[in-house]
Specification:
Largest sheet: 8 strands, antiparallel, barrel
Strand content: 15-25%
Radius of gyration: 24 Å
Helix content: 10-25%
């Protein structure tokens, strides 16, 4: 089920895997552990608002990839995890596992530890945060090794064969690499560069791009504090994989995974263009703290918010959002306190200059913020009435309503008569 009848009746696996459904993905519910299981995550996706017209572009959604994997399990009559393990076994990926809800990943043999930077001090990630990925497992909840990823890359370079066995048909792998949604992230030859590089489209589950004239398929991964990127150049017979475990988000540094991937290519294959591989200029990227502050100021200006006129006692209660889950607000020692799932907990303090509350986190979720932002970035609550508040995180504004829950929402999110075929004149309704 989706937010409108047209998508409901028209959606295909290709739409799900190429992120062209045009629906907003959830922001924080899965990271907070706000969903009891995958079924709840997928059920809530029916309320995801439209971001763009159906198949008009690509809006990344881990939820819809998780839906695709779950549906494959339903069709096969076996859990997705069992199907994936069979695939690992056929490729000899013996050190790869699917993340679940209960495993203590501190006890997994040779498991890499994650690290983040807090006020200039390197600290180890609470590995229990990793368990939250279980709700969207088919979207990439895999712990693996560089050696196993090499086996996966070889599987693609050999057109789906492992030894003398055709594990996946060549036709299916070629279908993955067919552009499904185009976008422009290309760098063409110019006065300052002779390089032709960048990404131009998304296929079914992979990005499609070109580097130094060679086509590649790629995908990256991020779960604080682990980042990775894989590239496969089918016509060149070459592939690369890079991964790091913190303590900073490399996408905000000079030497990110794109730089690493480009450099590996140049070291092994040379560059026909003779261009230099230049690191990023992080000064061109906006600091996340600045982005959050700008979005808050814009939010306040657009609404012309008055000083808060609601009492602390009046906002205590249960609130909900169709996609993100439920939030409970209570009073602790005369201070407002919120809880969303396992990890979304904290105190709400009145902002000194704005009519909003800012969060003082009471959970290790703050470790993820330190990693992604390179420091502590504020999260805000804005009470527009005693029954409505906006949760402002990373610049996104999510509206929660009092006493809204799955039990109060319609199972079908659109009206039955919507999107009905046009009637010919003379036909009766």
């Amino acid at each position: 089920m989706f937010s409108d009848r047209f998508r409901y009746e028209s959606m295909t696996f290709r739409d799900l895997l190429s992120h062209r459904a045009g629906l907003q993905t959830e922001y924080f519910g899965s990271s907070f552990g706000a969903f009891k299981d995958t079924d709840e995550l997928l059920y809530r996706s029916r309320y995801a608002p439209e971001m763009a017209s159906f198949r008009a572009g690509s809006f990344y959604s881990n939820t819809l990839v998780a839906l695709a994997g779950t549906l494959i399990g339903e069709i096969a009559g076996r859990p997705y995890g069992a199907l994936l393990q069979d695939f690992f076994d056929q490729l000899g990926m013996n050190d790869s596992i699917l993340i679940n809800r209960h495993t203590n990943y501190d006890l997994v043999v040779n498991m890499s530890r994650g690290y983040f930077l807090e006020n200039g001090v390197v600290k180890q990630l609470n590995s229990a945060l990793i368990n939250m990925i279980f709700v969207g497992a088919p979207a990439g909840a895999v712990i693996t090794t560089a050696n196993d990823m090499a086996k996966y890359i070889k599987f693609h370079l050999k057109s789906g064969r492992v030894g003398d066995k055709q594990v996946v048909s060549q036709e299916a792998l070629l279908w993955m690499r067919q552009p499904a949604a185009a976008f422009d992230s290309m760098q063409f030859r110019s006065v300052n560069s002779s390089m032709v590089a960048g990404e131009y489209a998304i296929g079914s589950g992979v990005y499609l791009g070109v580097f130094d004239g060679w086509e590649f398929m790629s995908h990256d991964g991020l779960w604080a504090t682990f980042e990775s990127e894989m590239r496969i150049y089918p016509r060149l017979g070459f592939g690369t994989f890079s991964i790091n475990n913190g303590p900073v988000d490399l996408s905000n540094s000079r030497y990110d995974h794109s730089f690493l991937q480009n450099s590996l290519f140049a070291i092994v294959n040379g560059l026909s263009s003779g261009a230099r591989i230049e690191p990023n200029d992080p000064s061109k990227n906006k600091n996340l703290s600045d982005v959050v502050l700008e979005s808050l100021e814009k939010y306040i200006a657009e609404r012309q918010l008055p000083l808060l006129n609601v009492s602390k006692e009046s906002v205590v209660g249960n609130y909900g959002h169709p996609v993100e889950g439920d939030i409970e607000i209570t009073l602790r020692n005369e201070t407002l306190y919120f809880r969303c799932g396992t990890w979304g907990t904290g105190y709400l303090n009145q902002h000194p200059t704005h009519p909003v509350y800012y969060v003082i986190w009471d959970s290790d979720y703050v470790q993820m913020i330190y990693f992604v932002a390179g420091g502590l970035v504020d999260t805000f609550f804005s009470f527009e009435s005693e029954n409505t508040f906006n949760f402002i995180i990373y610049g996104a504004v999510i509206t929660f309503q009092r006493n809204v829950s799955l039990a109060t929402l319609p199972k079908i999110p659109w009206k039955p008569e919507s999107c009905v075929p046009e009637q010919k004149s003379g036909e009766k309704q």
